[in-house]
């Protein structure tokens, strides 16, 4: 993944190219070339690209990777204080905790509305099949974190061990 330093380098090169097209546009008007208006359009577009790359060079990219987290799918997100993720039925307790921490990191945003307690609650669920043709969603854990600070040390994780025990045994 490109870093902010890479985008700054790209900005410098595209900025130089924009200036070159600007000079070509100016020469086109001086010498009345037939493509002078196209050169103005190209210069304008290059200016927009330069501005976009510059914006990407000043915005920090950060994604925390939690070791042990398994792939999860976002099932529900109200854009505010609640979200639900789906996990495979083969998950164990340590993977569940890591996956909840990963989801809390991934879904954190200052733009979320936290309600009265300013907390984001993410529930983890899986689907079990107690008998053929019947599917039952099973919430196996949840995490609550603050929406006010990025590095929340006060996250509360609840793992429902009795529900984890209902998952099919895949150790054999």
Automatic annotation (TrEMBL):
Name of the protein: DUF2518 family protein
Pfam families to which the protein is assigned, alphabetical: DUF2518
Bilayer-spanning residue ranges: 12-31, 38-59
Keywords associated with the record: Membrane, Transmembrane, Transmembrane helix
The keyword Transmembrane helix is assigned to this record: yes
Domain of life: Bacteria
Database matches in InterPro entries: Uncharacterised_Ycf51
Lineage, broadest ranks: Bacteria, Bacillati, Cyanobacteriota, Cyanophyceae, Coleofasciculales
